[in-house]
Amino acid sequence: MSVPELTPTEERIVLLSATGLSAREIANEIELEVGTVEWHLVRAARKLQTATALQQHVQRAVRSARSRGREPRE
Predict the structure, then answer these.
(1) How many Å apart are CA 31 and CA 44, to the nearest integer?
(2) Which of 36, 44, 46, 65 could form a disulfide with 70 if both were Cys (CB 3.0 to 4.6 A apart)?
(3) Can you give the pTM of this predicted structure?
(4) How many whole angstroms separate alpha carbon 34 and alpha carbon 74?
(5) For residues 13 and 2, is the Cβ–Cβ distance under 8 A?
(6) Which pLDDT tens digit goes with each residue over 14-45?
(7) What span, in angstroms and rounded, lies between the C-alpha atoms of 55 and 46?
(8) Any idea of the CA torsion for 31, 15, 6, 26, to the nearest 10 degrees?
């Protein structure tokens, strides 16, 4: 399972959103329609949820291996 990466636009919008800007404010700042900004936020959220789920799966596998006395390789 590969972790999808954010596009440059998704990353920029997520970073602006993290500063507290609304979708309308972001749209005005980067000259996009509000609906386009919201669409990018939804896609980014889905990708980040996938990344979080993968990270949690890996952490569980590492803990399980360690509990059996095995040190996972990097």
Answers:
(1) 19
(2) 65
(3) 0.71
(4) 42
(5) no
(6) 999 989 999 999 999 999 999 999 999 999 99
(7) 14
(8) -20
